[in-house]
From TrEMBL, chains A, B:
Ranges for domain HTH lacI-type: 6-60
Protein name per UniProt: LacI family transcriptional regulator
Listed CDD domains: HTH_LacI
Pfam family, any one: LacI
Cross-referenced InterPro entries: HTH_LacI, LacI/GalR-like_sensor, Lambda_DNA-bd_dom_sf, Peripla_BP_I
Species this protein is from: Cypionkella aquatica
This protein's UniProt keywords: DNA-binding, Repressor, Transcription, Transcription regulation
Organismal lineage: Bacteria, Pseudomonadati, Pseudomonadota, Alphaproteobacteria, Rhodobacterales
Gene Ontology molecular function: DNA-binding transcription factor activity; transcription cis-regulatory region binding
Amino acid sequence: MSNSPATIEDVARIAEVSIATVSRAIHLPEKVAQSTRLKVNQAIAITGYTPNAMARSLRLGKSNMILVVAPDIGDPNFSSILVGLENEARAHGYGVLIGHTQNDAQRGMEYLKFFSSNQAAGMILFTGILPFGHQSMTARLPPTVGVFEPVFNGGIPYVGVDDLEGARKAVELLIAEGHRKIAFIGENRSRLAYARRRLGCEAGLDAAGIPAASRIVMDGDGTIESGRLAVDQLFLRDTLPTAFMCVNDQTAIGVMLGLTARGYDVPRDFSVTGFDDVPQASFMQPSLTTIRQPRGLIGKHAMTLLLQLLSDTEPTETEILLRPDLVVRNSVGPPPRR
Amino acid sequence: MSNSPATIEDVARIAEVSIATVSRAIHLPEKVAQSTRLKVNQAIAITGYTPNAMARSLRLGKSNMILVVAPDIGDPNFSSILVGLENEARAHGYGVLIGHTQNDAQRGMEYLKFFSSNQAAGMILFTGILPFGHQSMTARLPPTVGVFEPVFNGGIPYVGVDDLEGARKAVELLIAEGHRKIAFIGENRSRLAYARRRLGCEAGLDAAGIPAASRIVMDGDGTIESGRLAVDQLFLRDTLPTAFMCVNDQTAIGVMLGLTARGYDVPRDFSVTGFDDVPQASFMQPSLTTIRQPRGLIGKHAMTLLLQLLSDTEPTETEILLRPDLVVRNSVGPPPRR
DNA sequence: TGCTGCAATGTAAACCTTTACATGAAAAAA
DNA sequence: TTTTTTCATGTAAAGGTTTACATTGCAGCA
């Protein structure tokens, strides 16, 4: 037995045909006589031949792999979007590989090399910031689609959720419950999506005619810890809100923990909303009222867009914003009478 | 400007040397005259040349990528082990790619093709079950290291945590607090690691001379939901435990939710322990007493083992079990007096 | 001066495919 | 029967590397 994997030549020898015929039998079966096709298939079965993808890509100048570049695989939003991406890719004959950059430009650069070698045909980017340091590479960017936020470079389509509308839904719920003093616990430095959620919140407050004076905005970094911290800082002030609208679920969870630790009850004493609907949200005590991102759909749409790019079809859209849904659970109630 | 990426030939032309010299200037710089090296480096800078990894692997018959095959990227244990893997790989000139199988043999097979093409040099497997259906492929398995549990195939080294010892530590804590009726909420079908945790629990109970009659074992599937379900089922019985030892944190979280939903207080009425120390564990209310897996270390060791395999060094060990630590938080207390 | 040996570089083959073009045989048309 | 067309297959080049081997030029030595 040979130890190295079988090549097309091994198959050709056994089937007693030329390598060209083997190749055709695989990729253009209708171009090859039925009897020959049979012999080739038998030979393939005998040798266990599987085509060398590298040689193939080298020759063809393209591959059928798509690289998903993510700064943080641990993000609770990531995995279900990935499933959407994978299913769609698979249905069109593409495979998916994941590159984890840990927010490190150096690592991002390494993945970029995949494209000069045709190891991957296209890229899905989970960050607005190109992970490859300087923009100079930009001109040679492979077919790319952003997820969550626009990529800071002209003309890269992206798929996200309508953060403004989502945030507005959340704030409108709070207002409908009777809240007038609402604190936005957020973050607007690193992620554009977060900034837009704040704008959505402001818009809702504006529409309800709630004066700027009774609005509170706190900065965090989107982690559980920062939510807890925000509560601590707020309690140093003389005016407290009756509701906390949080930029994401992690922050909301932190806020709830902070409030419970101080002996308050949610939603009796304070109401809290999140954004994202991470799996954890439904398991909190109380369960978290939040805005759901249609994660599977986001993945599916992003991949569809990328596949259009790859087939040189002019993409039908350059920006897809999906509608987020309000998920009402138990962390919101009317404000307490004081 | 050329639109296709620069090749070694472009560099050679500009540097006015042969392609062989360019190749040597890159990989064996000491074999090339300093002045030539300089010219080549300039030419590389001008062209923006980066070697075509596919052509290189094709020629060399090996790559410098390592494939991490995971059935479920969303597993809260996954991401920090991955970081350990990546850092170690990187320090030795290897890159890491992730393949997500979603527990689907078909997808697993696809990733296997990476090896017949030398697209990857080795593999880290996050499951005891080879994701490629039939064992027949087994003979041609690439260099592989398992994580968490042994791979069901002779001679594949693996790195995990000493589940027996961990489980024992947990049960000993409960016994020390005075618990005598302890329920093990677990799972022993799919994952060997889980079966071992149960054995560790039994061993601890045996050592304390606790009779089999006062032991309870419930089956679940390791999800939050199954923990909650187990509580419901237990409350149908006439004898209740005073403590719940759970096979993992997810189950423990479910158990705590189930108990709180019934109006009980943890740890006053019931004690609960988990296993894994997922990030969520410390944010629960009450925070969860659990067994910590040294995730970064697991990743590091697994990669070290794989790198040994790749360099044809006989691996120093074939099984590495790391010591898990008890993390005492607030979900365990003495049993209530009845 | 004439050799030997070494350092630096070049030439060409090999890795495994795909495919344009060439070839040959059989079927169709004359 | 001869000519043309069609179909099935083969030959060889190309894609971008690395490297064994060949070549060249020069220093060191007798």
